[in-house]
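Re: that backbone. Tokens:
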């Protein structure tokens, strides 16, 4: 595990470290704000986001585009879920009253899913 390995290194030492890390066959966890360094040495990226870890089987150079895709997909899913909840609530209020208990359960389940997301 390397935590900010380039912080106090000069450029030739960083280049040496990059070469050494690229040659190693071991798995490494590298935490760094040095984007150039991460792009040169990584071949997989783990993103810790809102209590969830997500893995990208490509280096850090592909991370930002992938992250934007993930966030956009989540936003679309949240929008769809919101619309479904609106439909369920409308149905619950104005639908068949004999089914009110089931309708209430369905809306509760949808709301619980929204809260988990």
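Recovered sequence:
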């Amino acid at each position: 595990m390397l935590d900010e390995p380039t912080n106090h290194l000069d450029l030739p030492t960083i280049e040496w470290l990059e070469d050494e890390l690229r040659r190693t066959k071991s798995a490494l966890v590298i935490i760094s704000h040095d984007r150039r360094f991460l792009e040169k040495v990584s071949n997989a990226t783990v993103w810790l986001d809102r209590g969830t870890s997500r893995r990208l089987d490509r280096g850090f150079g592909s991370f930002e585009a992938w992250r934007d895709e993930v966030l956009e997909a989540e936003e679309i899913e949240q929008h769809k879920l919101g619309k479904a909840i609106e439909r369920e609530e409308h149905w619950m209020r104005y639908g068949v009253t004999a089914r009110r208990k089931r309708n209430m359960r369905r809306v509760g389940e949808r709301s619980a899913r929204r809260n988990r997301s």
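DSSP finds four helices and four strands in the chain. The CA atoms of residues 20 and 41 lie 9 Å apart.
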